[in-house]
Write a structure and sequence with these properties.
It contains no helices and eleven strands. By secondary structure, it is an all-beta fold. The strands form two sheets. Strands 2, 4, 5, 6, 9, 10 and 11 form a seven-stranded mixed beta sheet that branches. A four-stranded antiparallel beta sheet has the order 1-3-8-7, with no helix packed on it.
């Protein structure tokens, strides 16, 4: 059974950085593209970044290009999201997602505030 466990969220000052992790189990992680989504209060869940199974291909939402970096370690079955230059509008619950299976993690909260 697919399990995705996010971690690394927290409260950070504007301009700060966080690194989110998603530990995956229950499937062959290295064979699947992965993605990060986020959902702000009262808003829809939206795609933040995606990465191919071999990490060669990546995609970013325009709002995070140049600030966020998605990566993965297939040996550790872990997905990452490095977030730099965080702004208040980045405040949201961040979710790990397997597009092919439709699986979601429980999310990790990111709050950017002074």
């Amino acid at each position: 059974q697919v399990q995705l466990v996010e971690s690394g969220g927290g409260l950070v000052l504007p301009g700060g950085s966080l690194r989110l992790s998603c530990a995956a189990s229950g499937f062959t992680f290295s064979r699947y593209s992965m993605s990060w989504y986020r959902q702000a209060p009262g808003k829809e869940r939206v795609l933040v970044a995606a990465i191919s199974s071999n990490a060669i291909g990546t995609h970013y939402a325009d709002s995070v290009k140049g600030r966020f970096t998605i990566s993965r370690d297939n040996a550790k079955n872990t997905l990452y999201l490095q977030m730099n230059s965080l702004q208040p509008e980045d405040t949201a619950m961040y979710y790990c997602h397997v597009p092919t299976t439709g699986s979601w993690g429980q999310g990790t909260q990111v709050d950017v505030s002074s």
